[in-house]
Specification:
The chain is mainly alpha-helical. It has one domain: Cytochrome c oxidase, subunit III, four-helix bundle (Four Helix Bundle (Hemerythrin (Met), subunit A)). 66% of the residues lie in helices and 3% in strands. A two-stranded antiparallel ribbon has the order 1-2. Strands 3-4 form a two-stranded antiparallel ribbon. A hairpin with a 4-residue loop joins strand 3 and strand 4. Helix 1 runs parallel beside helix 6 and helix 3 packs antiparallel against helix 6.
């Protein structure tokens, strides 16, 4: 019995390798717990969409104002690396969906395997992104050592944008495309890191047998988060890499 006098509702484990789940005391039924958490998480995802929606609005505004700058800036990105990362995330979205299905059917081993593959996809994505950033740093398009130095009055340029090869010299505000590129991809990359961390947390719970057909709510919610991360990249890829 909970501290407020309500009887605790326990979802039994389907087997000895799993743990039973006690519904939180402020919920009357497992269905109420599931639906409440799902609604709250959808509201959270809506705030994520608002965050990226503002970035997309900025992209479209400046793309309209400085079309040539974005056209030339897009040519400095390796579209095939972006396409490879898109493929990696799409595959990881499938493995995450299979992980959720494995939890729903009490397949502990498959849940761990599919979650592990999803984390591997996240690592591959971040490694590819690291090499992209490294190339931009070497060419002076985004110098990370001077990222927060601000405006350089002597050169009349932002400190992090030196453009060693002069590839953006013929267009106005050459730094603008790379400022938006870095902002959007870095925030997305942070979401990838957070998502991978949540999946590792799911794997720890799965190893203990917490998730099964009777209780898989955390797996389902983390899966939704990961699908949103993948969906956002599907929009980022053509806007940034195929703009030219």
């Amino acid at each position: 019995m909970s501290h407020d006098g309500h009887h605790s509702v326990v979802i039994p484990a389907p087997g000895p390798e799993f743990q039973s789940h006690t519904v939180a005391h402020h919920f009357d039924t497992p269905v109420q717990e599931f639906q409440s958490a799902k609604l709250g998480f959808w509201l959270f995802l809506a705030t994520e969409i608002l965050l990226f929606g503002g970035l997309f609005a900025a992209y479209f505004y400046y793309h309209q104002m400085y079309h040539e700058t974005f056209h030339l800036g897009g040519q400095q990105l390796d579209w095939w690396l972006g396409a490879l990362n898109t493929s990696v995330l799409l595959l990881s979205s499938w493995t995450m969906a299979m992980g959720v299905r494995s939890a729903q059917t009490s397949q502990k081993g498959k849940l761990l395997m599919y979650c592990g593959l999803t984390v591997l996809g996240a690592v591959i994505f971040l490694v590819i992104k690291f090499f992209e950033y490294k190339a931009k740093n070497e060419h002076g398009l985004i110098e990370f050592a001077h990222l927060f130095d601000g405006y350089n009055g002597a050169t009349g340029q932002l400190s992090w944008f030196t453009d060693h090869d002069g590839v953006m010299a013929g267009v106005p505000h050459g730094h603008l495309f790379f400022a938006i590129y870095l902002t959007m991809t870095a925030i997305h990359g942070l979401h990838v890191i957070i998502g991978a961390g949540l999946i590792v947390w799911i794997m720890k719970g799965a190893a203990k047998g917490r998730f099964h057909a009777g209780y898989y709510l955390p797996v389902d919610l983390v899966g939704l988060y990961w699908h949103l991360v993948d969906l956002i990249w599907i929009f980022l890829f053509p806007l940034l890499y195929l703009v030219s």
